[in-house]
Amino acid sequence: MKYRRPCKSGLQTVPFVLVAYLIFLAAPVVLLGIGSFGESWSNTLLPSGFTGRWYLEVANDPSFRRAFVTSLQVVAVTAAINVLAGLPLAYAIHAGARGGVRFAARLVTLMPIAVPELVLAFGFILVFSSDTLPWLGSFWLLAAGHAVLTLPYTVTALVADMDQLGLDEYEHAAATLGASFFDRVRDVTLPLLSPSLLSALLTVAALSIGEFQLSNLVAGFLSRTYPIVLLQAFYGATGFACAATVVLLVLAIAASLASGVAARFAGGRQAEPAA
């Protein structure tokens, strides 16, 4: 069988495509950063002047401060729901479901990712705007919506880590030594999964901070999150809107980087038992 060398022209185009993609991805972020320090920006490629007052105005704006605090509260409640619901659900899928049942359980878990957020939001509006369930616009319904959207990421990550760690073997060894179920969960399951759970929760935080579509339709006036208020900023001064966007971007990037570091640490922890 003859060995066919890869086409050199095709390999040469790969770096150009990669560079073009990175430029396309980074250009809006760079322009937002530049615009946040511009004095004015109107019908030009770059802003004119230099100022830092936009960040001060964002920090002093009561609506943005309230929305920022609300977003952090939603993230905290969403993370708590992911721990309380995601960990038992992932454990049940890993330990109890086999074959077709396991596949069906994971398929149901991933449904919020497959269904568009607008569809979920409209469903929330129909169900929770009735006289029986008049919860539309409440903080807790908003947090529940964020939990529905982010729970699949937590469950998927935890189930994959349970499979990779060989959690069954560790629990079986603990059971043979007389450990009860709760002792195994406390002394075996939680310590092994803590790095993976932390990584999943940081990913949940990054997703929840930037979530807009469902929040914009479900949130009430007093429970508006930061992205909702941010949209209204673009109807005013461009520099103010850019500064407010950079704040949100920094939060999301920080959560994503922390999630990556936690995932790398979890990978190191998983490699130790295997060695």
Quickly list its features.
globular, mainly alpha, 275 residues
Give structural notes.
With 275 residues, this protein is mainly α. The chain has helices spanning 8-35, 53-60, 62-95, 100-109, 111-114, 117-128, 139-165, 167-176, 181-210, 213-218, 226-233, 238-274. Helix 3 crosses helix 11. The radius of gyration is 23 Å and the shape is globular. The chain starts with 7 loop residues before the first helix and ends with a helix. The model has no long low-confidence stretch (mean pLDDT 84).
* General shape: globular
What are the segments in which pLDDT stays under 50 over at least 5 consecutive residues? none
Largest sheet: none
**How does the helix and strand content classify structurally?**
mainly alpha
Write a short abstract of this structure:
The protein is mostly helical and 275 residues long. It has helices at 8-35, 53-60, 62-95, 100-109, 111-114, 117-128, 139-165, 167-176, 181-210, 213-218, 226-233, 238-274.
Secondary-structure topology with pairs:
Blueprint: H1 8-35, H2 53-60, H3 62-95, H4 100-109, H5 111-114, H6 117-128, H7 139-165, H8 167-176, H9 181-210, H10 213-218, H11 226-233, H12 238-274
Helix pairs in contact: 1-12, 2-12, 3-7, 3-9, 3-11, 7-9, 8-9, 9-12, 11-12
